[in-house]
Write a structure and sequence with these properties.
Layout: E1 2-4, E2 7-14, H1 22-33, E3 39-43, E4 48-53
Antiparallel strand pairs: 1-2, 2-4, 3-4
């Protein structure tokens, strides 16, 4: 996992995927179901959808 703009990147999905952002959205939804505030953002530089969460205060 890496940090990006104060957020923790949980997973990366290529934007060129035939299903678009769906895999990222499904992954984020599964993480939200487990209580993590995951969301999908687009990283234009790497042409990928990122699933991120804001870091906890104790991280």
């Amino acid at each position: 996992m890496s940090a990006s703009m104060g957020r923790k990147v949980l997973e990366r999905f290529p934007a060129g995927s035939p299903r678009g952002s769906w895999p990222a959205e499904e992954y984020a939804a599964a993480r939200r179901a487990k209580g993590e505030p995951a969301k999908v953002v687009m990283d234009l530089k790497s042409d990928a959808f990122l699933v991120v969460i804001a870091p906890h205060d104790d991280d």
